[in-house]
Amino acid sequence: MSIDSELTNPSCPIHESLIRDILMMGGERQLVLMLMVISGVFIVSLAKLWAAVIGATLWVMGQWILAKAAQYDPQLSKTGLRSLRYKKYYVSQATPFAPLRKAV
Fold first, then answer.
1. Which of 36, 50, 58, 97 is 20 to 30 A from 89 (CA-CA)?
2. How far is 71 from 56, CA to CA, in rounded Å?
3. Residue 56 belongs to a domain
4. With 0-12 CB in 10 A as exposed, 13-18 as middle and 19+ as buried, what is 28?
5. How many domains does the chain have?
6. Confidence band (pLDDT; 50, 70, 90) for 5?
7. Residue 85 class from Cβ within 10 Å (0-12 exposed, 13-18 middle, 19+ buried)?
8. Looking at the domain assignment, is residue 79 inside a domain?
9. Phi, psi torsion values for 4, nearest 5 degrees
């Protein structure tokens, strides 16, 4: 490899751990941990059989939903919230009285 080819085509390998999504049990990490806490509250804190059944059902169904959502988009909680803030239609703001732009 010559010096000329290194100057024209510089490259730097990036380790996979720097760009890989942070998933836990197949779902987005923050959402899985939040689901774990909520299910734990039902199972441990209430100490009733019906609460344990609700907590276990919530855990299984929620984990399945989070894993399916992560297969679709691993950062769905961030991109989904951002897309909900977008309007369906943006009114144009152009006017014939706008100042002319200077070409650089």
1. 97
2. 23
3. yes
4. buried
5. 1
6. low
7. exposed
8. no
9. -60, -40
